Amino acid sequence: MAAFIPSGRPAGENLWRGGLLWRGSFLWRGSLLPLGCEAAPVLGLKSLGLLRSPAGASSLATASPLATGKRRCGKEGGFTYLGVLFLIVLMGMGLASAGELWSTASRRDRERQLLWVGTQYAQALRSYYRSSPGLAQYPKDLEDLLQDERFPSPKHHLRQLYPDPIGGGEWTLMRGFDGRITGLYSPSTDTPIKQTDFPSQWSDFVGMASYKDWQFVAEKAFLDGASGPKPQSLTPQALAP
To answer: How far is Cα 213 from Cα 215, in angstroms, rounded to an integer?
Structure first.
């Protein structure tokens, strides 16, 4: 039987175009597309040039389906990119707020440690002074608070030597006119968060501008004595000239 030849085209050309149409449809349907992009319509007769658009048709009506799919993919990809950027900004703001809260809580904790440790040193200095077997005097070194050799059996006024909780280093020592330690304080010049509600013995810490103003002295009477002359009535008999 003779082969049917449409539109006067040879049978081989029609078979070749039909095979290409079927193969293009198969490959397009089986291909993988980027996330968020819609597939363009399957290749049809118009995309292969087998059908002609009517005369006078607009360019939008005859636009390639593949080009339309690419434009749709580009728009959706742009919105996705903006969404990711917005999410990153929100995460950064959240991390910054969490870091600030953690820093404030850490400083408050170090302030509580400073008050406790400073009080331990002040009490140890008082104990050393008041338990003197002869002439009342303060220690020359902080190590003397751990091992008081003035007694036949050494006495311990402090369990251990504590570092400065604020700076983590050495304390600034306050000494009397005889060179012995009467108190100490942190050398930090940072402004304290805590400004009120101090224990009664440290009530003068209210409104201080820096941690170095939190001076833990064994006896308040010696605070002025370390920097200048003091009234005779406040001078302990053991240290009176």
So the answer is: 6
